[in-house]
Automatic annotation (TrEMBL):
The chain crosses the membrane at residues 15-37, 78-98, 110-133, 140-161, 187-207, 214-235, 241-264. Gene3D superfamilies: MetI-like. Residues 72-264 form the ABC transmembrane type-1 domain. Belongs to the binding-protein-dependent transport system permease family. CysTW subfamily. Pfam families: BPD_transp_1. This is ABC transporter permease. It is found in: Cell membrane.
Length: 271
């Protein structure tokens, strides 16, 4: 075998791994840039996208830009509330769609995907028209943003939990009931622990979507300012480096939660 053939065989054997690594690099380079820029001192430069000097000032004074921390807190509040309601309603809906047969079930399964497939500008304008028609045109704010976020998060929760439920082995529940466990005990001791990773994933996804949303929020916010709207507003004058601090903190929290869930799942599987 010639050297060229060996090189071709090596490339063929490692092509998938190389492609995967390139995709990971493509995904994480922007995050690395955000982390790096959170330590950037751009006080002496108008170019906020060029790294000048290293500083801890951005981390020591994350609320220095007026209104930023208020916007972050507001986004977290809306995200947590929307996640709680969407996860609860979406989980119940997923159980109904997977475990029960009723008239219109196939139609419901199709309709669930519509908010996910519709452009956000269409959803946002439709919700705005709904609120105006309902007499809330002059009262847009926290409540209307919350309602809008619950609405578009529901579909993602239902789809995620449905996927987890569809993969469960029904024999496990049947075995528990054969051992004289009640339906309530079977649910909390068998079904819920098995479904919980899907519920947790749906909740994390919902919070990320809610915290990050701009288009739907901007159309239904009134005078309320969330963190994405704050970033859009200050971007016209120059983004403060503290925005990168918030982005880094949110990424690290998400990474911690994902790794914790993975370790707990592996520990339970090993036992």
């Amino acid at each position: 075998m010639t050297g060229l053939q060996r090189a071709g065989r090596w490339i063929g054997d490692h092509l998938v791994m190389a492609a995967g690594l390139l995709v990971l690099v493509y995904m994480f380079v922007p995050i690395a840039v955000v982390m790096l820029m959170s330590f950037n001192d751009n006080s002496k430069s108008r170019n906020v996208y060029a790294f000048r000097d290293f500083t801890w000032s951005n981390w020591a004074h994350p609320c220095r830009p007026d209104g930023m921390c208020d916007a972050v807190v507001r986004s977290i509040e809306i995200g947590l509330l929307a996640t709680l309601v969407a996860t609860l309603l979406g989980t119940l809906a997923a159980f109904a769609l997977v475990r029960h047969d009723f008239v219109g079930r196939s139609v419901a399964n199709t309709v669930i995907f519509l908010p996910m497939a519709s452009p956000e500008i269409v959803m946002g304008s439709s919700l705005l028209a709904l609120f105006v028609a309902g007499g809330f045109g002059g009262q847009l704010g926290f409540v209307t943003i919350f309602i809008a976020h619950v609405m578009f998060c529901l579909s993602f929760v239902i789809v995620t939990v449905k996927a987890r439920l569809s993969g469960l082995d029904g024999n496990l529940e049947q075995a528990a009931m054969d051992l004289y466990a009640s339906e309530w005990t079977t649910f909390w001791r068998v079904t819920f622990p098995l479904v919980f990773p899907g519920i947790a994933a749906a909740a994390l996804l919902s919070f990320s979507l809610s915290f990050d949303d701009f288009i739907i929020t901007n159309l239904n916010a009134g005078q309320t300012v969330t963190f994405p709207m704050f970033v859009w507003g200050v971007a016209q004058r120059g983004i403060p480096m503290q925005v990168n601090v918030v982005g880094t903190v949110m990424f690290l929290i998400s990474l911690f939660l994902v790794l914790t869930n993975m370790l707990v799942t592996r520990k339970k599987a090993a036992v």
